[in-house]
Amino acid sequence: DTAMAAQMTDAHRRFLQVLMSKGITEGSEARRLHHHCCETDKVYYAHDKLDDFISTINRHLQPLFMQIRKGMSEEDGRAHYAVVNLAETEVTKMASDYTEIELELFRKTMDLIILSENGFASSTDILNLADKLKTKKMKKKEAEQVLKVFVEDKWLSEKNGEYTLHTRCIIEMEQYILSNYQDVARKCNICRSLAVQSQVCESCGIGMHLPCVRKYFKAQTEPRCPKCNEFWSCDIP
C-alpha cells in the first residue's frame, strides 16, 4: 500500500542516529526526540504518531536486518525503545566487544539471573564463579571491573550488590533467552513477554512482571492467580 509507505526523511534519520548512539531510550525521551527531530528538519509532526514514525524507519532498516524494538522496563513498566541487530545474535555481537573470558563470565551471570527465583544474582555468587571459569580463572578484582563494564554498556543493571539483566539486554536477547533457556525462561502471564524479574505463583508456577502484578491486582479485592485461581502468596509490590 503506497499510502502507507511513508518516506524516510531527515527527521527519521536523525531519530535513528540518536537512538543508535544511546542504545536504548525511555519512552518519554523518545517522544521528545520525535518532536525535536520533526521540528529541526521541518517535517510534519503528530504527537500521537511515534509508533508510525518508527515503523517507517523499521521498513527502511529491514534490508539491513535491523529493527527498532519496543520493550518495557521490568522495574517500573515504562516503555523503552532499542535498536536491535537481527543479522547476528546478540551474543555474537557481544563477541566483537568483549574477550572470551568476559563473555564466559557474562553467560554464567545470565545463567544465575535466569535460574534465580526473582531475577537477580548477588555479586558474591557472581564473583564466586570467577575463579571457576573454563577459559581461565579470573581474579575477583578483575571480575568486579568486568561487571562494571557490563553495567556501563547496559547489559546488566545493579542495585545494592544485586545484578539483573538491563532492559536493553532483555529487548535484544528475548528470543535468544527463550530458546536457550526453554525449561526455565518464563513469559509473563499478563503481557506475554519475557519476565526475568518476576513473581511466581506457588501453586501453578506461572510468572508475572512486577508492574504487571501491580496493575493486575489493583482491581481485585483479593489477589488470586490469573491461571489457577489460588491465593497469590507473594507481596504485591
TrEMBL record:
Q: Which reaction does it catalyse?
A: S-ubiquitinyl-[E2 ubiquitin-conjugating enzyme]-L-cysteine + [acceptor protein]-L-lysine = [E2 ubiquitin-conjugating enzyme]-L-cysteine + N(6)-ubiquitinyl-[acceptor protein]-L-lysine
Q: Where is the protein localized?
A: Chromosome, Telomere; Nucleus
Primary residence: nucleus
User: Which UniProt keywords are given for this protein, alphabetically ordered?
Assistant: Chromosome, DNA damage, DNA recombination, DNA repair, Metal-binding, Nucleus, Telomere, Transferase, Ubl conjugation pathway, Zinc, Zinc-finger
Task: Enumerate the SUPFAM superfamilies for this protein.
Answer: Cysteine-rich domain (SSF57889)
- E.C. number: 2.3.2.27
Q: Where is the RING-type domain?
A: 188-229
Q: Which domain of life is it from?
A: Eukaryota
For this chain, one GO molecular function annotation is:
zinc ion binding
UniProt-listed GO biological process terms: double-strand break repair via homologous recombination
Q: InterPro entries, from UniProt?
A: C1-like_sf (IPR046349), Nse1 (IPR011513), Nse1_RING_C4HC3-type (IPR014857), WH-like_DNA-bd_sf (IPR036388), Znf_RING (IPR001841), Znf_RING/FYVE/PHD (IPR013083)
Any single Gene Ontology cellular-component annotation: chromosome, telomeric region
- Keyword Zinc listed? The answer is yes
Q: How does this polypeptide assemble, per the annotation? A: Component of the Smc5-Smc6 complex.
Question: What does the UniProt record say this protein does?
Answer: RING-type zinc finger-containing E3 ubiquitin ligase that assembles with melanoma antigen protein (MAGE) to catalyze the direct transfer of ubiquitin from E2 ubiquitin-conjugating enzyme to a specific substrate. Involved in maintenance of genome integrity, DNA damage response and DNA repair.
- To which protein family does this belong? Belongs to the NSE1 family.
| Protein name, entry field | Non-structural maintenance of chromosomes element 1 homolog
Q: Which organism is it from?
A: Neopipo cinnamomea
What phylogenetic lineage does the species belong to? Eukaryota, Metazoa, Chordata, Craniata, Vertebrata
Q: Which gene encodes it?
A: Nsmce1
